[in-house]
Amino acid sequence: MSFDLNQLNFASEDSLALVLPKEKLTYGQLKTAVQKRMGDFPQKQELISVLAEEDKGLIIYLLAIIQSGNYPIFGQLDCQKQEWNFPKEPLFIGQTSGSTGKAKHYLRDWASWEAGYQAMQTVFPINEADLIATASPLATSLGLHTLFLALFLGKPFVHLNKKTPNWSGKTALFAVPTYLLKHSDCPLDLDQIYLGGGSLSASGLKRIIEYYPEAELFEFYGASESSFISWQNLKTSKPAGSVGQLFPQVQINVTADHSLTVRSPYLFPGYLGQTEAPVEWQLDDLAEYKEGLLILLGRKADLIDHGGNQVSPAEIEKPLQALGQEAIAFGMPDELYGQKIALFCIQPLDLKRIQAVLLKLPAYKRPETIYTAKEVPLTANQKVSRHYLAQLAQKGKLHEI
User: Fold this and answer.
1) Which of 127, 147, 260, 266 has its CA 20 to 30 A from that of 197?
2) Does pLDDT of 88 surpass 70?
3) Is 207 helix (H, G, I), strand (E, B) or coil?
4) 310 with 341: CB under 8 angstroms?
5) Angle of helix 313-321 relative to helix 351-358, nearest 10 degrees?
6) Are 306 and 341 in contact (CB under 8 A)?
7) What positions does the domain AMP-dependent synthetase/ligase occupy (predicted)?
């Protein structure tokens, strides 16, 4: 099953498709613009790089590549052509962040995303929204997923960037938690908020509810390769570490060492160069499954190897978070121990209380260095990254207490 712009479920050609800062495009106008641009591409099933254009140009360019039978690719390609192996009808080829190793190109197909969109309609009130918006870059998995969700639903799409258009209507926003925590003055009135792609602390959740007390608030958990795995209504509850109940038709396996494997109709077709689509996919996250809830314990890649002891950052962070102190533990290279433990705390902080809590930890789990700032430095994709914090600390760009 391939993506076909002509088969989308919009009410009419005059239905709004894109709401831009200076103009609005109907679905009819969008189709015409895409068809015109399709002539720029050969009918050869070639890889074509998606350029960094402004929103309208990028969306039309992307859709024209797909409609012409070619393969849009994001990120730098460094493999040989003879290694390429495509599913019959890929939607696009994205690039992982490479946080757990070398960056990889993953493939997405329309059938898996369409199945996920159909499931979303059964658990979320997404059909009630008049507008679908995202604050994530359009080259990211979340940004693209939201764009195609809007197209699937036949609703207008808006990208929150430097220039946000005016809009009145029931709006659903898909974003990482850090966006709302940094933009309490979001330029759109939000009726539905869907948060994913980053951890959400209890204090952060409280602030978001204070910012948007009337909005319906949901959290989802997944990855570029897996799509949605679980979800929860944040206005109901958020148990510590929980990312909610399993998404429809998702099956998981959690081993004794907390490794998490998922099977679902929403899995990606594989990485560029793979010969077969994966039947299941193992995540980098460590997890537990208790009483119908998926509980995250941290990432394998985030484990700190301190003198041979594998220390989970969560073991250090949770007692501090219980005090209301937002903190992030991470490892830094150390000649003697392999990695030393560092801690980043968001201001304001009570150093005496923090130290008192840390003293209750076993000696090998205690941070050697504490850094602080008014907010967490984020990656280019507006995410919290322990690896990025370690890089900044090594370069002397974090304030040490």
Assistant:
1) 127
2) no
3) helix
4) no
5) 130
6) yes
7) 81-272
- 122 in the same domain as 39: yes
270, 107 in Cβ contact below 8 A? Answer: yes
Strands 227-233 and 259-263: unpaired
pTM above 0.85, yes or no: no
Boundary residue ending a domain (266, 298, 330): 298
What are the backbone angles phi and psi of residue 352, rounded to the nearest 5°? -65, -40
Please choose, from the candidates 270, 283, 276, the residue with its C-alpha nearest in 3D space to the C-alpha of residue 106: 270
pLDDT, one tens digit per residue, over 218-275 is 999 999 999 999 999 999 888 888 999 999 999 999 999 899 999 999 999 988 877 7
CATH at 216 = 3.40.50.12780
Find, among 275, 301, 298, 297, the residue nearest to 288 by Cα.
Answer: 297
Residue 201 structure tokens: 């602390």
Instruction: Give 99's pLDDT tier (boundaries 50, 70, 90).
Output: very low
Spatial contact of 200 and 228, defined as CB atoms under 8 Å apart = no
Print the domain residue range for 307: 303-400
Tell me how crowded residue 56 is: count the other CB atoms within 10 A of its CB.
17
Residue 158 contacts residue 167 (beta carbons within 8 Å)? yes
Give the domain-ending residue among 235, 264, 298. 298
Residue with tokens 């009570």: 350
Q: How many CA atoms lie within 13 A of 118 on its CB side?
A: 9
Place of tokens 């998981």: 252
Mean pLDDT for the stretch of residues 129-151: 93
Closest CA to 344 of 361, 359, 325: 325
* Averaged pLDDT of the chain: 88
Full strand arrangement of the beta sheet holding 281-290: 251-254, 259-263, 281-290, 293-299
